[in-house]
Design a protein that fits this description.
alpha/beta, Rossmann fold, Methionyl-tRNA Fmet Formyltransferase, Chain A, domain 2, seven-stranded mixed β-sheet, 15 strands
Amino acid sequence: MSGPLTIVFMGTPDFAVPSLQTLLDGPDRVAAVVCQPDRARGRGRKVSPPPVKVVAEQAGLPVLQPESVRTPDFVETLRAYAPDLLVVVAYGRILPEPLLRLAPLGAINVHGSLLPRHRGAAPIQWAIINGDEETGITIMQLDAGMDTGPILLSVSEPIGPEDTAGDLFTRLAELGGRTLALALDRLRRGELEAVPQDHGRATLAPMLIKEQGHLDWHRPATELHCLIRGLDPWPSAYTFLDGRRLRLFRPEVVPTPADLAPGTIRSADSTGLVVATGADSLRLREVQPEGRKRMPVSACLNGLSLPAGARLG
């Protein structure tokens, strides 16, 4: 197919916005946008639209927000738009076979990892948590499994030693848009080849839960360094001091002898909070005491005592 494509876009969060914007700026026609229903968000639980919906409505596109994509009525609604292709980016649900077969070119997905590594809902976070030195974007043909379809195109992105999940999220969202544009250009020229995944190399990246942020100070500092960055900004890593939660950010591994019990505070000053771990120590340069905002340790010390020798956790 050499001419412009008619596309139905399916996506919900911020991560999907650059890919939608790529389509809006490109030669293809976005016939409709599908996203999750408006949900209550934030501490105030105010009902608000997903980011993709905001962009789509600003562009004057029809927006569909079904509670279920598995009803015959919804499939027929999409069929009426006569799409050549479905483009799916962090939509939030696995698509049923009738939707995968609806468009002549099927459905393609923009995924935030180098598949088959990190299949699942949180690939960006798990890449950092697992200590990967690189990740990337994979464009794949969707099938009935979870991120199991053939790979059409992949582009890598390095993970720096200071990168957080938030940092990487922003970079990969933009890279996703650029990689999608490249994939669609190759698709129009008939140069996009589907390569089956090596399922034996697959790893999973399940959705995160808040409890995963509770630090076990017996683990090595190198592992905690990755975990804290991978959980920043959500759900964030935490410990307890005198029964109150203390969230921890911007870690740095500090080589030290094993002379203190894990979780013991070595020091706390303008350079950060240094805590003994199962191997070496960890300097935390930002913290968030319970009921307060995230701040540098130097600011926290004005109102919170972090004495050397105190035990965390």
